[in-house]
Amino acid sequence: MTVTPLTTTPEITPVQLSAAAVAKKRLSSPWASLAAIVIAILWTLPTFGLLLSSFRPELAIKRTGWWTFFTDPQVTLDNYRAVFDNDTGVNLGTYFVNSLIICIPSVLIPVSVAALAAYAFAWVNFRGKNILFVAVFALQIVPLQVTLIPLLTLFVKMGIAGTFWPLWLAHTTFALPLAIYLLHNFIKEIPAGLIEAARVDGAGHVAIFFRVMLPLLTPALAAFGIFQFLWVWNDLLVALVFAGGGDTVAPITLQLANLTGTRGTAWHLLASGTFVSIIVPVTVFLLLQRYFVRGLLAGSVKG
Amino acid sequence: MFQTASTTPEKLLQMLSALLLFAAVLGVVLFFASRVRGKRSDNWVGYLYLLPVVLLLAVGLVYPGLRTIYQSFFDASGKAFIGVDNYKTIFTDGDLLTVLGNTVVWVLIVPPLATGIGLIYAILVDKSRFESFAKALIFLPMAISMVAAGVIWKFMYEYRPDQATVKQIGLINQVIVWLGGKPVQLMITDTGKLNTLLLIVVFIWIQAGFAMTILSAAIKAIPDEIVEAARLDGVSPWTMFIRITLPSVRTTVVVVLTTLAIGTLKVFDVVRTMTGGNFKTSVIANEFYSQLIRASNQGLAAALAVVLFVLVIPIIVYNIRQVRQEA
């Protein structure tokens, strides 16, 4: 990762200060601020409109725009009740549970498997290491779509189609190349002296991995874990192909997508349903933003 | 354990047993790794640590990838060999040409616009008092699913017939009405690819935050001395942008552009949720799904996936070469 933290500004002499202040003033002209505010509003307004609608009564949503809320405020929780109600057939609660069941193993398994592999690539000298590493690295270019048809056939043959297993296995596999690459970049930055010292003390590769590496790796594991969590929670394609039928395994995104098809005009259900599906990823994002951004930066800026 | 679980306790139990099974596999790997001794021990540890990865990737990525390439030369049922006919269909059939054309439009528009907006915004809010809050606003769409984003924007584009008693509930059509125009059925109007362009807006809305985050980090990495020196020379903000900021973040811009291009090629959820690929809005990744599930044409779906694969490769190679040159 080349993104270095902001260097501290050197001591500023009075002359420099005035020059810098002048430039700063010019840079933060009212036009620039206005442009920033306009962009921020454009980016927030669509979500805000639907959020507001999710609290308006069904009839009000269907007859008037959400902006009329400000002249005629009506608030209700009925829409949220409706998406969890059995009678409406939306049953978001079930799908919500499915999403969680899909996500937890789909994050834990690839992260730990990738950590072991990244350690082996960085600190264990075995024959064929370089070739294997390049192969794993190169597999990042395989688009999901290329694998789906044979995998579907395979899962049917194995008799696990329609269970959670295809989703766990698929999400785990698809995450590995990037996870190994990112964790490897991080792990090889750890000073060799630390590992050698542990070896001198008689620690084997298992002990070194758990005692030395794991504690140091925690931030990187968290970064990738959050990334993977959001990716799996928000996935639609893998779910559509492997969890098509009914509420036994399908995640919340799938049910929401179905609703847009079958109840495209039931805005009271769509609005509240959308926010139920958003609440987990947005909470994760807001709480762990720092790690998420780190994961993003590690993924896109050269390692 | 491999049966369908239908109640919540059953599902939780299944998840727990999956995790335990996985922990047991790892336990076995680690047990053997801790037992190997001698000169060749590093070889054994390496292979043991990589065993799960190699197995998963071979079965889940390499084999299916090759199998799909093979399958793309077969007919709809996957039984009769038909040579390159599927590829011929993709490049001659009128509907599929529209799909290819739409994909080109997506890839030409999304990366530059999302990167441009991200860059401008990153510069505008840099070092301002509300920086982290302002960034979070643009970044938030990245955290939600494209399905949710699709619903949010479908609501923005919602159309109500133009009658005196009917009010618009979609903001865009309301703005058109306020400006004295007539409401438009935005999602089904394909004149000038209007509906495709409106879907592209949604994807840019999702991706600009990604571009902004990466570029903002790159901007902050520009040494303060350079910026300070330029300021002392009294350069205008514009010159500063062209002469200092832009050249300093050039590699990052390339990385962001190419990453977005790859993501755009694979765009699926937005199209699926908002139009289902109808009204001439389909793109390759969506058409793949339609052919696979709706039309049950395995061969054509496989060929579309291969086309996608082939289109992604040059972008990634370019990306890696740019980064290498800089390093």
From TrEMBL, chain A:
The chain crosses the membrane at residues 31-52, 95-124, 131-156, 168-187, 208-233, 266-288. It is a multi-pass membrane protein. Residues 96-288 form the ABC transmembrane type-1 domain. It holds the Pfam family BPD_transp_1. It comes from the Bacteria. Keywords: Cell membrane, Membrane, Transmembrane, Transmembrane helix, Transport. InterPro entries: MetI-like, MetI-like_sf. It is found in: Cell membrane. Belongs to the binding-protein-dependent transport system permease family. This is Carbohydrate ABC transporter permease. It comes from Actinoplanes oblitus. The lineage of its organism: Bacteria, Bacillati, Actinomycetota, Actinomycetes, Micromonosporales.
